């Protein structure tokens, strides 16, 4: 009788332990789990890219000091880098954004990168500059970081403007580090 009771007890303990492991599997942030509702995937083979840019708002939330002269955003005129605080009104520039991938396992092929700007002050409206797609390889691979470039004609009205670069990936491993800002002044 004791042999049977011991066997049943061990079986129940193992079943409960398996159930606990199954329940914990979907809750851990370290697990590679798709957040897509239509086709949830919970497999070790599933990997997600982490497109990122120097994101001041994310870094501030982490308690870090930031610069508003974004090291990942550069303006060019005729192929030459220019100071973003000495822009000419109603002039064509190229805005280039360096895009990184925090993942060593998953690329982001066809990553949409949107460029906008706002005038400084309360209630400033976001104006679209343009959008482009880049192929972002895994971290450390050739072609990493990728560079997204769009043309921008500065406003005719002098003033302070905030350039925004937004990485728009649907299943990003960390969607909090996807908006970079560069302060610009049209003289």
How many β strands by DSSP? 9
Biggest beta-sheet profile: 5 strands, antiparallel
Distance between the termini: 92 Å
Low-confidence stretches: none
- The shape, in one word, is elongated
Give the C-alpha Rg: 24 Å
The percent range for strand residues is 35-45%
Notes on the structure:
The chain is of the alpha+beta class. Helix content is 16%, strand content 36%. The protein is built from two helices and nine strands. A hairpin with a 6-residue loop joins strand 5 (108-119) and strand 6. The N and C termini lie far apart (92 Å).
In short:
This protein is of the alpha+beta class.
Produce the secondary structure layout.
Blueprint lengths: L1 H24 L25 E2 L3 H6 L11 E5 L2 E3 L9 E10 L6 E12 L6 E11 L9 E8 L5 E9 L11 E8 L1
Antiparallel strand pairs: 1-4, 2-3, 2-4, 4-7, 5-6, 5-8, 8-9
């Amino acid at each position: 009788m004791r042999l049977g009771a011991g066997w049943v007890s061990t079986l129940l303990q193992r079943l409960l332990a398996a159930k606990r492991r199954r329940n914990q599997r979907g809750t851990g942030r370290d697990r590679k789990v798709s957040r897509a509702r239509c086709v949830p995937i919970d497999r070790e083979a599933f990997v997600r890219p982490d497109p990122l840019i120097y994101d001041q708002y994310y870094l501030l939330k982490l308690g870090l000091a930031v610069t508003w002269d974004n090291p990942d955003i550069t303006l060019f005129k005729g192929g030459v880098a220019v100071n973003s605080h000495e822009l000419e009104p109603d002039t064509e520039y190229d805005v280039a954004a360096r895009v990184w991938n925090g993942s060593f396992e998953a690329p982001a092929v066809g990553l949409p990168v949107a460029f906008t700007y706002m005038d400084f002050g309360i209630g400033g409206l976001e104006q679209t500059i343009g959008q482009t797609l880049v192929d972002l390889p895994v971290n450390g691979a050739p072609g990493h970081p990728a560079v997204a470039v769009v043309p921008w004609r500065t406003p005719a009205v002098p003033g302070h403007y905030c350039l925004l670069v937004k990485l728009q990936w649907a299943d990003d491993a960390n969607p909090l580090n996807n908006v970079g800002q560069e302060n610009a002044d049209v003289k």
